[in-house]
Design a protein that fits this description.
This protein is mainly β. The protein is built from no helices and 29 strands. Strand 19 and strand 20 form a beta hairpin.
Length: 486
C-alpha cells in the first residue's frame, strides 16, 4: 500500500525565484519476504524457487511514513551576482515484523535453525541549511561561474530491534516456511536514540569556459561531530577536504571528451542488532571517504546520443564476519574497488521509434584488507557484466508501446563452507512489456499506463552489491496507473 502526497510551489519575481516543496509518504508492504542468505556448502545456489511461494507469518509487514519539505530561494543582487539559500527537513518513522531480514537455508533449500523472527522500530530526523553567493565573471577571454557556500546539517537516528527464539522457523524454500508451536512474534519495543550528528561545511566552486574547453574546480571542507548515544567514549570528530574537478573538450558540436574526479564523505555509524546479532553492537564505525574517477566520450549522431566511459570507484568495505557462537562481527575491512567500462545509447533511429540501451563491465576487487587475506577477491554480489535494451514505438501522438529487456551476469558471494570459498549466483534476464495512452478529460491531461513486469514469469536470484545477502525475484506482475496533470 502506498500513499504519497507532494506539493510543489514556484514563484518567479523580477529579481528572485522561490520554490517550496512539501511531501508526505506512507508506505506499507504486507508479507513479501524476499531476502535470503546461504548457509550450505554448494559452489552454486540451489535453483530459485517459485517466486509466488510465501515466506511470511501472519502479521509480517514493513511500514515507513513521514514528512519532508525543502525551501529554496535565490535573489539577484545585480546582473552578475546572486545570493541563495536552501533549507530542508525530513522526519521518518516506521517499524517492521519479519521472519528474519534474510532467511538462511542450506544446499537442499532447508531453512536453518539460526533464523529468528524480528521486530524493529526506527525513526530518523534530518535538517539541512545552506547559504551562499554565486556570480558570473569574465577574465579576459575566460568566462567564469564561481560560488561559495556554507552549510550545516543535523541528523538523529532512533532504533530498537527485538528477536524471537531460535529454532522456531523451519521449512524449505520450495515449500515455504513452517512455524513450530512455540513460535511467537517478538514484541515491538520503544526505539532508543542511537546516534546524533552535526556536520558543518564550506564549499568553493569555479566553472571556467574558454573556447572549446570547460573546467570545473571545487573543494569542500567538512567537519563531522558524531555522537554515539549507546556507548560512551566512542564519539567522532572528523575533518576532511573533498576536492572535485572536471574537464571537458568539445572539438565540435557533436563530440565531447571529458574527465572528472569526485570525493564524498560517508557519515559514521553505530552497529545495531537486527536479525543478525553482533558481538560489537553499540560500537562506532568511523566515517569514510569514497573516490570516483571517470573519463569518457559523448557523441551525438543526428538523433542518437551515445556515451562510452571508463570508471574507477573506491569505497570502504564493510563486512559481517560470522563467528563460531552464531554471532557476527561488523567491521570495516579494506576497500572495495570497481574498475570498468560503461556504454549507453538513446535516441530515435527511425520515425516513431525510441531506443535506450547500455552495457556495463564492472570488475570489482577487494583491496587493503586486514593482513591482505582477501586482497584481489571478488566483491560480494557484484556482477561483472550487465546490460539493458529498451524500445518504444509510438504509432501516433496518444499511444506508446513499451518493451525492455534487462540482463545481469553471474556474481559470487563468500562462503567458507564451499570447497572454493565462494558460491555462485547465476545470471538472469527479464522482459517487461507495456503500453501508455494519453488523452484529455474535462480539459485535464491524463496518461493511463499498463505494464507487465517479468513477462515470462521467470524465477531467479538477485545479487546485492557488497553483501552476502541476495533477493528472490518478483513473479509476473501487472500494473495499472493514471497520471493527472493539474
Amino acid at each position: 500500500m502506498k500513499r504519497i502526497f507532494f506539493l510543489n510551489l514556484d514563484r518567479q519575481g523580477k529579481t528572485s525565484f522561490t520554490n517550496l516543496f512539501i511531501g508526505h509518504f506512507d508506505l506499507r508492504v504486507n508479507e513479501g519476504q524476499r531476502w535470503f542468505t546461504y548457509g550450505g556448502n554448494g559452489t552454486e545456489l540451489p535453483s530459485a524457487p517459485d517466486s509466488n511461494i510465501p515466506y511470511d507469518y501472519k502479521g509480517t509487514t514493513k511500514w515507513m511514513h513521514g514528512w519532508m519539505y525543502t525551501f529554496n530561494h535565490e535573489k539577484q543582487i545585480n546582473k552578475d551576482v546572486s545570493w541563495f539559500t536552501n533549507i530542508g527537513h525530513s522526519l521518518r518513522s516506521g517499524n517492521k515484523y519479519n521472519s528474519s531480514s534474510a532467511l538462511s537455508f542450506d544446499e537442499k533449500g532447508n531453512f536453518l535453525s539460526s533464523n529468528v523472527a524480528n521486530a524493529q522500530n526506527e525513526s530518523g530526523l534530518n535538517t539541512y541549511f545552506q547559504t551562499g553567493i554565486r556570480g558570473n565573471f569574465e577574465t579576459g577571454v575566460v568566462k567564469q561561474q564561481a560560488s561559495i557556500a556554507i552549510d550545516r546539517s543535523w541528523a538523529k537516528y532512533w532504533n530498537d530491534s527485538n528477536n524471537g527464539t531460535r529454532g522456531t522457523i523451519g521449512g524449505n524454500i520450495y515449500t515455504g516456511t513452517i512455524y513450530s508451536p512455540n513460535f511467537a512474534i517478538p514484541a515491538l519495543r520503544y526505539a532508543k536514540l542511537s546516534w546524533n550528528e552535526i556536520n558543518t561545511g564550506v564549499t568553493i566552486a569555479d566553472s571556467l569556459s574558454y573556447g572549446k574547453w570547460d573546467v570545473l574546480l571545487a573543494a569542500s571542507h567538512k567537519h563531522e561531530n558524531f555522537q554515539n548515544k549507546l556507548r560512551t567514549g566512542q564519539d567522532i570528530k572528523n575533518d576532511d577536504w573533498l576536492p572535485t574537478f572536471g574537464v571537458t573538450y568539445k572539438p565540435n558540436n557533436d563530440i565531447a571528451i571529458y574527465a572528472s574526479q569526485t570525493e564524498s564523505l560517508s557519515r559514521g555509524a553505530v552497529v545495531v542488532n537486527g536479525s543478525r546479532i553482533y558481538d560489537n553492537a553499540g560500537d562506532t564505525l568511523a566515517p569514510s571517504t569514497s573516490k570516483q574517477r571517470e573519463i569518457g566520450i559523448k557523441y551525438n549522431f543526428e538523433n542518437i546520443f551515445t556515451t562510452l566511459a571508463y570508471f574507477d570507484i573506491d569505497t570502504e568495505s564493510l563486512i559481517d564476519k560470522e563467528l563460531d557462537n552464531g554471532l557476527y562481527h561488523r567491521v570495516a575491512d579494506g576497500r572495495d574497488n570497481y574498475k570498468g567500462w560503461e556504454w549507453t545509447v538513446n535516441g530515435q533511429p527511425a520515425d516513431k521509434w525510441t531506443v535506450t540501451g547500455g552495457l556495463l563491465y564492472m570488475n570489482g576487487k577487494r583491496e587493503k584488507t586486514n593482513g591482505g587475506t582477501a586482497d584481489g577477491k571478488f566483491i560480494n554480489g557484484a556482477a561483472k557484466w550487465s546490460g539493458v535494451i529498451g524500445a518504444t514505438y509510438a504509432p501516433n501522438e496518444q499511444w506508446n508501446i513499451i518493451s525492455r529487456l534487462n540482463w545481469v551476469g553471474e556474481a559470487f558471494i563468500d562462503n567458507s563452507k564451499s570447497p572454493t570459498g565462494a558460491t555462485r549466483i547465476p545470471s538472469y534476464a527479464v522482459l517487461d512489456l507495456g503500453v501508455d495512452y494519453s488523452t484529455v478529460i474535462s480539459d485535464v491531461p491524463v496518461t493511463f499506463k499498463a505494464m507487465v513486469y517479468n513477462v515470462t514469469n521467470r524465477d531467479y536470484w538477485i545479487g546485492r552489491g557488497s553483501s552476502t545477502t541476495f533477493g528472490l525475484s518478483m513473479p509476473r506482475t501487472f500494473m495499472l496507473s493514471a497520471t493527472v496533470e493539474i
